[in-house]
Design a protein that fits this description.
Blueprint lengths: L2 H29 L4 H6 L6 H23 L6 H27 L4 H23 L6 H23 L18
Helix pairs in contact: 1-3, 1-5, 3-4, 3-6, 4-5, 4-6
């Protein structure tokens, strides 16, 4: 299989992986009996923030999986995957707050579609960025740091969320766990 097809196949498989694992992570906290470790990766409530973890963590796991076949094939692997993950995480609240400003309340089917489209867009962005030339080592290092920082923020804000609307559970009005 040529390089271009292999890269495309890995990204398509990644899209499916992220969507299915992200969907599963919506329920793992409750299924775990509200286990604190599961809270790191799972949505612990119905806030917009917690739903961002459903895209972020599977995309990070996929980065680790895709690194094996692609790291030496793609010259800017870490930068492309980091930007793709950030696109997913930014796309979801942008769409959610845009459409709910018109509808006043969320629509479950739109929320699911938003998640799926966010994953697809993030994966497309990564794939398109792969076509650029090899990035300098400092860019890869910065990308890895940006992903690690976001991972830390997700964990910390799960247990100690700021009292902003994005962190508020839409069903209970509570924040965090």
């Amino acid at each position: 299989m040529d390089r271009k097809r292999r890269v495309l196949l890995v990204e398509v498989l990644g899209t499916v992986f992220i969507i299915f694992i992200g969907g599963a992570l919506h329920f793992t906290y409750a299924f775990s009996g509200n286990n604190s470790f599961a809270a790191f990766f799972s949505a612990v409530n119905e806030s917009v923030w917690e739903h961002l973890k459903l895209a972020f963590w599977p995309s990070l796991f996929w980065l680790l999986i895709a690194m094996v076949p692609l790291k030496n094939t793609v010259g800017n692997f870490f930068a492309a995957k980091a930007i793709g993950a950030y696109v997913m995480v930014l796309f979801i609240p942008a769409v959610f707050y845009s459409y709910t400003s018109l509808t006043v309340e969320s629509i479950f089917a739109v929320d699911i579609a938003t998640f799926i489209v966010a994953v697809i867009v993030g994966q497309i962005v990564s794939y398109k960025l792969y076509k650029h030339r090899k990035s300098p080592k400092w860019v890869s290092t910065l990308a890895i740091i940006a992903v690690i920082l976001l991972a830390i923020i997700f964990v910390v804000f799960t247990f100690y969320p700021p009292h902003f609307a994005i962190f508020q559970d839409s069903q209970t009005g509570n924040y965090g766990i």
